[in-house]
């Protein structure tokens, strides 16, 4: 897997690159061998990959032989106009899509068959942008692309690609200026296959996190926005989770928890049991994600907090790695199961057309504050039970209520107008701060339980048990610090809840 960041330009007719020597340290623009490429692209019949910003192809004509390549979006094109994608390569027969590629694309395709959708032939001229020490810092290619239908050429287009290989955004921008001065023009940052396939490939995906709400939003708008954001995040992070990316696991877990909270918050608006059913179906997934995420958090804590003990912690690290691998295998299996595909399909349908009561057409100001009040009442009840010396379990229960309250304010607040919207936004910040402190506290509880379990399993290893004892002592210090911070933030959060509610709590 590698990351591809490139700038696209259109050219009309023959084009010769300008002299770029001296631009941002460039020493030479070195000509490379030309290539003759053939790429057969696969997608669903309704182009789900293309509409999600992805592509799958089998291409021949390059050094190293033919290969399959799945390209996934790695970011959005910003002011630099760079097309930013991850490339995952596979070897395999041209007659069959590799199973690994199908798996990575499963959340986008949701089980629909991948079939040939476009056949492109490309004549490619290439230049290496050489920097100091004879290192390639970018590559410039000029492509003449023929779109094929059988043996017939149905259209042609030319384009330039300037791909970053260490030059950086400033250098890419500077060379771009030289290319424009030589007659190239900026092109939309889309792939060749999207350009070849036309308007359907540029249509929105089946579900998209489509932005902001306003004080004029209806209750239905708020529900759709929350569900679309969650479903889109699940789909976007599916490949990364399968490949074991720590951040992707974290983001998918957050998306799942937020979806469950939103489905519960908006549940009173649902017509029928669909919201509760989706929430229940998401629960096992959240548990599997949590098992992986807990091991990732503990591994990070060990690296940060116990570097001086590393020589004695081998069995502990081995046990944690074994836990992680087993948990990730279970999560991976669940994400490739037919039940998960069905869940995604139902989520996408609910996000786009939720079955809601008549109140969905009323303004958010008239419907949603009552739902938010119900969620916040639970937070206040948990706060009132805390006392001066709360148990770990009471703090854990407050953390869960605080997290749900935060998600509710973030889902509802942007759709509220005037002072209500501003107070809710401020409250959201307070809830986030309290959740973070309580989360740090809970992390130490989970870590200590794991440490004690490993110590029991290796009771005869004196050096390990001594190191674990020192780590437990550090967890206690961190827990006291997190508890003290949480206790200070509890009062501020309670006051913000009461202010948002007009002081009636």
In short:
The protein has 505 residues and is of the alpha+beta class. The chain has helices at 48-51, 99-109, 169-181, 192-197, 219-242, 246-265, 274-305, 314-335, 338-352, 364-384, 392-412, 418-457, 462-500, and strands at 2-10, 28-43, 55-60, 67-73, 82-90, 115-130, 136-149, 152-164, 185-186.
Helix/strand order, N-terminal first: EEHEEEHEEEHEHHHHHHHHHH
| Uncertain segments | none
Strand content: 15-25%
What does the average pLDDT come to?
94
Strand order of the largest sheet: 1-5-4-3-2-6-7-8
Measured between the Cα atoms of the first and last residue, the distance is 54 Å
Please state the overall shape, judged from the principal axes of the Cα atoms: globular
Task: Give a quick account of the main beta sheet: strands, pairing sense, barrel closure.
Answer: 8 strands, antiparallel, barrel
Radius of gyration: 27 Å
| Number of separate strands | 9
Helical element count? 13
